[in-house]
């Protein structure tokens, strides 16, 4: 986003299980829960592990790198809180979880399934931050 553009993106509305996730974005850190018993990563945040039903959750930082699984460009009706073109993307993170975000800094002609991406952060109207993804300069293997 250019400095001259007005910030119109709304603030996130955290739920009790996701407060840590949104607070970490303030420090430009992408976080997730990891089950303290079976070690799988959980996203979106939730109170119980879907694999082993454990309530033992740890909050861990993620690499912020992944690959594009799928994407779309919503056209109509335009959502007034977002700048266009708006690219909505599903990203498979290195840690094995899939996250919904926006893809930026990428010409739509250059978007390919499986392309390497990295997290970046965008300000919101109320002074918070949200995650977005952009192409990774160096491929992530």
Can you walk through the features of this model?
- The protein is mainly β and 141 residues long.
- It has one helix at residues 19-26; strands at 31-35, 41-42, 57-61, 65-72, 88-93, 98-102, 116-123, 129-135.
- Strand 7 (116-123) and strand 8 (129-135) form a beta hairpin.
- The chain is globular.
- The number of strands is 8
**What order do the helices and strands follow?**
HEEEEEEEE
Measured distance between first and last alpha carbons = 28 Å
Radius of gyration: 16 Å
Describe the sheet with the most strands. 5 strands, antiparallel
Number of helices: 1
Which blocks of ≥5 consecutive residues have pLDDT under 50? none
Structural class: mainly beta
Q: Please state the average pLDDT score.
A: 91
Within the largest sheet, what's the order of strands?
A: 6-5-4-7-8
Task: Tell me briefly what this model is.
With 141 residues, the protein is mostly beta strands. It contains one helix and eight strands; from the N terminus they run αββββββββ.
């Amino acid at each position: 986003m250019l400095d001259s553009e007005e910030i119109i993106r709304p603030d996130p509305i955290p739920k009790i299980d996701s407060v840590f996730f949104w607070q970490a974005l303030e420090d430009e850190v992408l976080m997730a829960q990891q089950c303290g018993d079976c070690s799988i990563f959980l996203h979106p945040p939730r109170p119980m592990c879907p694999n082993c039903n454990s309530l033992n959750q740890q909050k861990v930082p993620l690499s912020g790198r992944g690959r594009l699984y799928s994407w779309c460009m919503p056209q109509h009706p335009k959502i007034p809180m977002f700048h266009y073109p708006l690219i909505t993307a599903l990203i498979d993170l290195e840690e094995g979880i899939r996250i919904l975000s926006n893809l930026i800094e990428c010409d739509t002609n250059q978007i390919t399934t499986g392309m390497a991406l990295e997290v970046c952060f965008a300000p919101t109207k109320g002074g918070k931050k949200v995650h977005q993804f952009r192409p990774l300069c160096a491929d992530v293997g």
